[in-house]
Amino acid sequence: MSSIIRTRRLEKAYASGPTKTYVLRQIDVDIAAGEFVTIMGPSGAGKSTLLHILGLLDGQWDGEYELLGQPIHSLKPKLRSALHKEHMGFVFQAYHLLDDLTVYENLEVPLSYRKIKRSERQSLVADVLDRFHIVGKKDLFPNQLSGGQQQLVGVARAVIMNPKVIFADEPTGNLHSAQAQEIMELFKKLNGEGTTIVQVTHSADNAAYGDRIIHLKDGWLDTEAN
Q1: What domains are there in the chain, each with its CATH number?
Q2: DSSP strand E in 33-152: where?
């Protein structure tokens, strides 16, 4: 399988006075198209930081990063943003739905960034509502949904543009076990359909859904665990 993500000597640091505080050090990662990869490690290991860099939500880092053969490290922010919108979906622990928009409108948001005709937008939203069995929730607002339902909408929003890769940051962290299992089964199904998935989790149960685990420790790849 071809590599969809490839990093070499990836580092992230914050200036603290005359010195630097490193969050990530010398990260070399290869993720093949169609893989389901989990990033694990103790709190403060750099897991979410790495996920946000790979998901192009954080542009301040050093080293090399290739996504779909494109050298992200040498691309301008506008091109990075275009790649993010075209190829990536992101699922957050806190759902990040827009409170003043209905489920339908939240699902339409990613489509509004693209030059898609209204009729096609309506069709795409209708398809994903049906696929995720949330047609009956389309006119509700996030505060009228349970946590599990909100995350279901979050996942639906992430996949509506048919991304090549989904990044999930503690996607079941706020859910009880039955809801968490439903979300993880959904990820497994999406992965089976060809979507690459990269998740950060503390849960061994969640990690078991994936193909392999990348372990981090104090900002480094944990070579003993990997």
Answers
A1: 3-221 (3.40.50.300)
A2: 36-40, 62-67, 70-71, 88-91
